[in-house]
Amino acid sequence: MNLKSITAEAKIENIALVTDFVNSILEKNECSMKVQMEIDIVIDEIFSNIAYYAYAPGSGEATVQVEIEDSPKRLELVFIDRGIPYNPLENKDPDVTLDIEERKIGGLGIFLVKEMMDEVLYEYVDGQNILKLIKDL
C-alpha cells in the first residue's frame, strides 16, 4: 500500500491540479482510460462541492488521498475537509426516470459518483468531513 496525498485550497481553479495529481498515480498503476475518465468526473464533482459549499462564505483547504491496493486491485480516493459537517450520502437519489423538466435541481452529481464507484463511505471525525470512495480495478 502506498498512500499519496495533495492538499490545496478548496477552489474551482484547483480541480485541474488535483485531477493531474490523481491521474499521474493512475497512469503509473496502468489504470484503464475508462477508469481514469470516471475518476476525473468524480474529482470534479466532489472537489467542486467542497469548493462551493464546505467553507461558504469563506474558504479553506481540502486534502485528497490516493491509495492503490494490489490484491485485490482497488483504488481508494479520500476527500477530507474541515468545512461544515455534511454527509452527501443522506441525500435522496434523484428520480432519473422523470423527464428533465420534472426533476429537482441538484443531487445528480453525487448520484453519478455513487453509480461509478463500488463503495462510497462518509464519516465526520475530529472536525473533518471524510468521504472515502472505493473503485475495484
Q: Name the assembly state.
A: single chain
What characteristic shape results from the CA principal axes? Answer: globular
Averaging pLDDT over every residue, what do you get? Answer: 90
Number of H/I helices: 3
Relative helix content:
25-40%
Largest sheet: 5 strands, antiparallel
Strand percent estimate: 25-35%
Rg, please? 15 Å
Low-confidence stretches: none
Order of strands across the biggest sheet? 1-2-3-5-4
Ends: how far apart?
15 Å
Q: Spell out the helices and strands N to C.
A: EHHEEHEE
Instruction: Tally the beta strands.
Output: 5
Helix/strand/pairing class, anyone? alpha+beta
Secondary structure: elements and pairs:
Layout: E1 3-9, H1 15-28, H2 33-54, E2 61-69, E3 74-81, H3 108-116, E4 119-125, E5 128-136
Antiparallel strand pairs: 1-2, 2-3, 3-5, 4-5
